[in-house]
Write a structure and sequence with these properties.
This protein has helices spanning about 45-60, 65-75, 85-90, 95-105, 110-125, 130-135, 135-145, 150-170, 180-190, 195-205, 215-225, 235-245, 245-265, 285-290. With about 290 residues, the chain is mostly helical.
Length: about 290
């Protein structure tokens, strides 16, 4: 899953009271408003987005780790007969929205391999989400410990499940498929510990919505190639890019920028990150020279 970057937080005490998140919290609620935070910054253009997408696709190919989500989108786009609905839905819903949300929570501040292992161990130890909800926090922490921040993530998952059961009467998020993007953001943002990047990832990967999450890799590339001003932060970058990037390019471009950012030192200058790998001639060098 798309790796989430965030600040480490002290483990929150278990809180089973379900109450809406405070709307004033900077890191909790996403509002894709009609106002561009950088109205005088006209990059990227649709042509820029398409060119970068094509260059990265030619260089990397489409990332295999996101292939199943891409196929789900293609299935939905090609769905033109009602009698095909059942088979298409079955294919698209193989990973539930709730599975996707928990998987994304577990991907925060860790590697893809560790987060996938943590999710597999959680599902192995607790076959359904009712089992997770009934388990004590320590047992959940032990199951997901390999992914890091186990107390914080266990608390977030337990709180979310409690709130979901209280509000909906069952542990299922499939109802989100019938809501608008803004409604989905409102629904997911009510859960304590579910921040903007997590919501955006669920929107893009699990709900096949046209959204553009911004993680550390994409944020740094966006600044390096001049898609946002140098003073931009991740929240304003998210708002700006979601307004500027055509919907039909968002998914592929996001997956490709994320994949490229993890590999290329020219775009992401973090010499202390041993996971970075040289990729040879960077396909974005021409764009970097323009900034």
């Amino acid at each position: 899953m798309w790796k989430q970057e965030g600040r480490k937080r002290k483990p929150a005490p278990a809180d089973h009271k379900c109450s809406p998140a405070k709307l004033t919290r900077k890191d909790t609620v996403i509002n894709l408003t009609t106002n561009d935070p950088f109205p005088n910054h006209h990059n990227p253009t649709a042509e820029d987005c398409r060119a970068v997408r094509d260059d990265l696709l030619a260089f990397h190919g489409f990332p295999q780790q996101f292939a199943k989500y891409r196929q789900q989108r293609l299935n939905l786009v090609s769905e033109d007969e009602i009698n095909k609905q059942e088979s298409v839905t079955s294919s698209c819903h193989e990973e539930s929205v709730l599975d996707g949300l928990v998987s994304t929570i577990l991907s925060q501040n860790t590697t893809d391999a560790n987060s996938q292992k943590a999710f597999a161990l959680l599902k192995s130890g607790f076959p359904n989400w009712e089992d997770v909800l009934a388990a004590d926090s320590k047992s959940i922490e032990n199951a997901i410990r390999c992914g890091g921040l186990a107390p914080t993530k266990a608390s977030c998952i337990k709180n979310m499940l409690n709130c979901l059961l209280e509000k909906r009467g069952k542990l299922c998020l499939e109802y989100l498929r019938d809501l608008s993007i803004d409604e989905i953001k409102t629904e997911l943002s009510q859960f304590k510990g579910i921040g903007p990047k997590t919501v955006a990832c669920v929107l893009m990967f699990n709900l096949q919505q046209d959204d553009f999450p911004v993680d550390t890799h994409i944020f740094q590339i966006a600044k390096a190639i001049g898609w946002v001003p140098i003073e931009a932060d991740t929240k304003r970058t998210y708002l700006h890019l979601n307004r500027r990037i055509p919907n039909e390019l968002k998914f592929d471009l996001n997956c490709l920028l994320f994949t490229h950012g993890k590999a290329c030192r020219a775009c992401i200058k973090k010499e202390d990150n041993h996971q970075k790998k040289e990729t040879g001639s960077c396909p974005l060098l021409n764009y970097l020279k323009k900034t």
